[in-house]
Amino acid sequence: MANTIEIKVPDIGGHDNVPVIEVLVKPGDTVAKEQSLITLESDKATMEIPSSAAGVVKEMKVKLGDEVSEGAVILVLETADAAPPPAKADASLPSPSGRGAGGEGSVSPGASASPAPSPQPSPQRGEGANAPQAAASTGKAADIECQLVVLGSGPGGYSAAFRAADLGLDTVLVERYDTLGGVCLNVGCIPSKALLHAAAVIDEAEAMAAHGVTFGKPKLDIAKLRDFKASVVGQLTKGLAGMAKQRKVRTVVGTGSFVSPHEMEVQTAEGVKLVRFAQAIIAAGSQSVKLPAFPWDDERVMDSTGALEMKDVPGKLLVVGGGIIGLEMATVYAALGSEVTVVEFMDQIIPGADADLVKPLAKRLGGKLKGIHLKTKVTEAKAGKKGIEVKYEGESIPETSVFDRVLVAVGRSPNGNKIGADKAGVAVTDRGFINVDTQLRTNVPHIFAIGDIVGQPMLAHKAVHEAHVAAEVAAGHKAHFDARVIPSVAFTNPEVAWVGVTEREAKEKGLKVGVGKFPWAASGRAIGIARTEGFTKLIFDEATHRIVGGAVVGVNAGDLISEIALAVEMGAEAADIALTVHPHPTLGESVGMAAEVFEGTITDLYIPKKK
């Protein structure tokens, strides 16, 4: 028989008249016991108030902006059985705030390192993630105790650890590699850019022959090139190790996995170490997708990590995937002398970018690579004596079917299902992502997640900003991740960069936008360096003239995109950008000129007025 009960605000640490900053349910909703109903924010903490019973919401008694105290009725619930007495909320460890709310973390800089008890996790708000039942504490003596443990030391992980330490938290950083920096620094972003620099120098030297300066054919010392790459990585990893020591961040080398909501086991060279923590930040990143059609037990089949090892320069290289990673490595190997073939399943390279943006890159690569084959995929690959033998299907079948090496670069998958998250009660989606709110909290109040593992875009610079927010909230500060836009860059030759709304996206969403586009064929600087294939494009809201997106293709596009990202974040109008004095002659002035094109004030181009 159904009963109607009132769900009230429990003891919230003696606070009175606490504002309701988010209402998470509505009449008619079915709620589970311990599911969060409302979010409160006092001057000390942000907390979600859970339901003390399961049932159906019949009537809401509070609304956004109300102020409540202990005993205030939140809602009327219809439940099959009488509800137990309301659970006492733990004011020392507040639950995660909702989206758009300003909240504080659960451990202040001077708090004890002993883990505080936490309420049971509420169901995760997000697609495909159900909160698992957390494991009980091991009851074992901890090898290490801390206020905060960070799992993973990539750009997000080390930034989180360093920021937390700066704010006074006793922090432990767990990393599987012998050096800090994670995938990005050790086997990703940084070494690839070192090799791309070498490739760019080779290309530039070759191009200068047309202008009367001939250097001759480059002589490649692959061992020295590897040493250069390693020295770049080493300089940065040593710097991180030094900063960790200066900040008194303890580092543990090994593979970490949660065993309970406040415990983590780390498999180290010396054996298993138990870390007990008050709070945690998951920064475990992602790994390359390995398609089952390829013989991964053969070293001639590589992911991006294998490609960066640069064991040799293959005569014939197949790159499967025409996205950013695939094209960057294609650029490197082609410059070093490989005959490179690219196969891409979609109808354009770098599918996330506007079609006009990738055309200059596709045209230039067309003269450097053996071929780029769109709407085509590899259906079979097997190891043979002469190489990796592949079969295709699609609209553009390559001539070559046997390759010395194959690079598979079709994306990355998050590591959410590889860290024992279920033992901590953390909800993980079927695809391995962990859903978080704007404070980067998971469904477990004292555990945060950042970087690749929380979703697209999987970019280091996004992870760093998320890291700062998570660390600040953990340290008791009000902070949120509310970036308006996140730029993307392909460090190919030419570089391709974009930020905010693309033309394709605007069309799909029915947005009314206008475009200002400045071709680099009219740029004195671009002409002077013989790189006029690029352009700068700005996208504006037609009604307000505020910039909503932009893109650059050309030399140093990855540097130029920063000004456009800042303009979007600041809500700049076309006139703000056009009237900003840019230095001449530079590639950067193309940003101002693109705004002038939109405004109709451009004098470096002749654009007939529309009748």
Could you please describe the fold and organization of this structure?
With 611 residues, this protein is of the alpha/beta class. 24% of the residues lie in helices and 26% in strands. The strands form seven sheets. Strands 9, 10, 11, 12, 13, 14 and 25 form a seven-stranded mixed beta sheet that branches. It has a five-stranded parallel beta sheet with strand order 16-23-17-18-19. Strand 13 (263-268) and strand 14 form a beta hairpin.
The radius of gyration computed from the alpha-carbon positions, rounded to a whole number of angstroms, is 27 Å
Q: How much of the residues is beta strand, in percent?
A: 25-35%
Separation of the first and last Cα atoms = 74 Å
In this structure, how is the largest beta sheet organized?
Answer: 7 strands, mixed
Query: What is the 3D shape?
Result: globular
Count of alpha/pi helices: 13
Low-confidence stretches: 81-128
List how many beta strands DSSP finds.
Answer: 30
Q: What class, by secondary structure content?
A: alpha/beta
The percent range for helix content is: 10-25%
Q: How confident is the prediction overall: mean pLDDT? A: 89
